[in-house]
Amino acid sequence: MDPRRLRPGAGRRTAQNRRPAGRRRAERHLRDPQPAHPSRRRRIEVPADAQATDRRPTPYPPAGVHFQTVGQNVGGDDGVSVPGSADRAGRPRVYCHKSGAGQLAPLYIRLIQGRQRLMKAAIAVLGFLMLGGCASDGRMLWPQTSAQSGQCPKLTSDQEFSLNLAQNMADEGRLHASLANLEGMPDSLGEVRLRKARVLRLLGSHEAEPLYRSLLGTCRAAEGEHGLGQLAAARGDNTLAQQHLLTASKLEPTDEKIRNDLGVVYLNQLKLEQARFQFLTAMELKPSD
């Protein structure tokens, strides 16, 4: 049996313990709140820009550089737009987040850097091609004639006169005057380059070597090899001098000057038999006075 039934007045509310009706409704509302009727709800207007903000991506994308077309919202509250980018309609606008602000690299800067790298590469390739075409030996500085023909272009009477005059000055020891006369003649002629190289070698100039090398592969190839051998012997490089002089002697076997210089190189190397042979050959080839 329920104990409350044993107490007097149980189950009956008296006027003293009875709560007001308004208080009962408030307590019932707190215990079981009911949604207000739709007609009684107050509608809150949300601005259009706030609605667009709600649809934006997460405000914490990976740090770095992002791209945005003009008129589109920046993805993230901490996005930093590049000033002036919105004024260029139809062009991409670049922005980055604070975490990657130190790595800001706008698109146009990347394009400029890429073009600069391409230009540097093109200049380097062009430089290598130019160096390959104009080799250090100086062979491509002047037009060449075939060495197989063994014939050089015929000189005019004025050119022959100027060359003879320069040669006479060199024989008299007037090397600078001889070189001045040769400077007035075209370098396209192999004979002119040969005379210049000889004068410059006697003057001790380093410009003689490229001139001698320019004669290789031309009708004056033997003289070019001879001059290179003389320069190597003057530097004390007898091995290189021997190679050039042997090549020259094969191109011009009857040139007594080449034979004599080759004998000197053999003598410097203490190759007495080879030196003796070359000296005897030079003496027999030398025209009698």
Specify the overall morphology: elongated
Q: What share of residues are in beta strands?
A: under 5%
The overall average pLDDT, rounded, is 72
The largest beta-sheet arranges its strands as 1-3-2
Region (Disordered): 1-89
Describe what this molecule looks like in 3D:
Helix content is 51%, strand content 4%. With 289 residues, the chain is mostly helical. Among the domains are: 155-215; 237-288, no CATH class. The chain is elongated. The model is unreliable at 63-88, 92-104 and 131-149 (pLDDT under 50).
Features:
TPR-like_helical_dom_sf, mainly alpha, 289 residues
Topology readout:
Elements: H1 21-31, H2 48-54, E1 65-68, E2 79-81, E3 93-97, H3 107-133, H4 157-171, H5 175-183, H6 190-203, H7 208-214, H8 221-235, H9 238-251, H10 256-268, H11 272-285
Antiparallel strand pairs: 1-3, 2-3
Helix pairs in contact: 4-5, 4-6, 5-6, 6-7, 6-8, 7-8, 8-9, 9-10, 10-11
Q: What is the gist of this entry?
A:
Helix content is 51%, strand content 4%.
